[in-house]
Amino acid sequence: MAKSLEVEHPKKAFGWAAKDTSGHLSPFQFSRRATGKKDVTFKILYCGICHSDLHMARNEWGMSTYPLVPGHEIVGVVTEVGSKVQKFKVGDKVGVGCMVGACHSCDSCADELENYCPDMILTYGVKYFDGTITQGGYSDIMVADEHYVVRIPDNLPLDSGAPLLCAGITVYSPLRYYGLDKPGMHVGVVGLGGLGHVAVKFAKAMGVKVTVISTSVNKKKEALEHLGADSFLVSKDQDEMQAAQGTLDGIIDTVSAMHPLQPLIGLLKSQGKLVMVGAPEKPLELPVFPLLMGRKLVGGSCIGSMKETQEMIDFAAKHNITADIEVIPIDYVNTAMERLVKADVRYRFVIDIANTLKSSS
Ligand SMILES: NC(=O)c1ccc[n+]([C@@H]2O[C@H](COP(=O)([O-])OP(=O)(O)OC[C@H]3O[C@@H](n4cnc5c(N)ncnc54)[C@H](O)[C@@H]3O)[C@@H](O)[C@H]2O)c1
Ligand SMILES: [Zn+2]
Which segments cross the bilayer (predicted)? Predict the structure, then answer.
């Protein structure tokens, strides 16, 4: 059984939490642990709203515990460091993404892939080492082991940089790992939401040709003129899809809901790779014959390691990659969630925590 948060933790904290599967968020007093020897405590300034926050707030993956404070695109300024902390000092700009712990003794951890540790501890909604439940960044302060804290370079804006901590790393990691980062390659990005729009930016910065694949033509102009995509396919337009058969080296699929994979597999060249990063609540149907004919591969990818996350943030700062954001006050968060369901956001909501989260709200 999880221990009581109040008994365990001396630091008062305040955030907005979902209390049940309605996912409705409301003010919530809780507490965080004292700054341990290897911990960094920071004041949260901004937190992005990932679609995973919505899946979790509504228990769409069947693993949520309540009350649940979502948020894993967290940035802020360090207020306190433990005696053994080496990388950070008070005043540093830092971020925390999707995980805050791992076993550090398994093969994945030995390979510096904490994100694939079977005991990886998510930033919110799971049991921490001390038996208490982790809580995320829709809150005023954060305490995390320095290993899970990322340095934010000075030239990276904190508000539009926040979404990189989940959306950014989730698309950067598979582009690198699956070798879809070679200049001249042609990569498709399916779903132009929070993850998808930064996938376009990272792939372009790597020198890759990018085709956006979307259900509607609405975002075409913006994708081409603003995000820098090279071409745009409307997945419901059979003629367009037919004409593009066999043209892509790889696809990053960021779609959050059920959708057919066959049309996407058809777009791949032989040996092409379809990489799933979106996490729909139900299994998708996998047509096997189109995979055999062309030795195509379907893979997955889950966020990225801490080493890779720092590398991604530094790459973003170097190439001026940030998310396109709509900054919102905390009391807009439930409306933002409703809009996220309808894909009505260009392209990431970011909560202005420092200026709008007040314990009297
Ligand atoms: N693998 C990981 O490590 C990881 C990390 C973060 C998020 N995710 C998951 O990735 C998914 C996307 O997250 P996001 O924050 O970018 O969400 P988002 O809502 O911003 O974007 C999702 C996109 O999918 C599109 N879409 C929705 N339903 C569709 C359908 N039926 N057919 C085609 N397109 C459809 C939407 O128009 C939108 O553009 C979510 O499921 C999220 O949980 C996975
Ligand atoms: Zn996320």
Answer: none
Instruction: Report the chain's mean pLDDT, rounded to a whole number.
Output: 96
**Each residue of 1-11: pLDDT tens digit?**
445 545 568 89
Q: Are 72 and 51 in contact (CB under 8 A)?
A: no
**CATH among 1.10.260.40, 3.10.290.10, 3.90.180.10, 3.20.20.100 for 5-166+324-356:** 3.90.180.10
Phi, psi for residue 282 in degrees, rounded to 5: -120, 160
Mean pLDDT score, 295-322:
98
> pTM of the entire structure?
0.96
Q: For residue 361, is pLDDT > 50?
A: no
Beta carbon of 45 within 6 Å of any ligand 1 atom: no
**In which residue ranges of the chain is CATH 3.40.50.720 found?**
167-300
Taking residues 152-168, what's their average pLDDT?
98
Distance 244 CA to ligand 2 centre (A): 30
- Range(s) within the chain of domains with CATH label 3.90.180.10: 5-166+324-356
ipTM value: 0.98
Residues in the chain: 361
**Of 5 and 324, more confident:** 324
Q: How many CB atoms lie within 10 A of CB 323?
A: 25
Of 230, 257, 262, 228, the residue nearest 245 (C-alpha): 262
Cα Rg, the chain, nearest whole Å: 20
Task: Tell me if 323 CB under 6 Å of ligand 1.
Answer: no
Token readout for 160 is 């539009």
Quick one: average pLDDT of 118-135? 95
| CATH label, 167-300, candidates 3.40.50.1980, 3.40.50.720, 3.30.70.1150, 3.30.1380.10 | 3.40.50.720
pLDDT tens readout for residues 232-269: 999 999 999 999 999 999 999 999 999 999 999 999 99
User: Cα–Cα distance between 146 and 141 in angstroms, integer?
Assistant: 15
Nearest to 191 by CA among 97, 120, 112, 264: 264
Instruction: Choose which residue among 60, 115, 171, 195 to substitute to test ligand 1 binding: the one with the highest number of ligand atoms within 8 A of its C-beta.
Output: 195
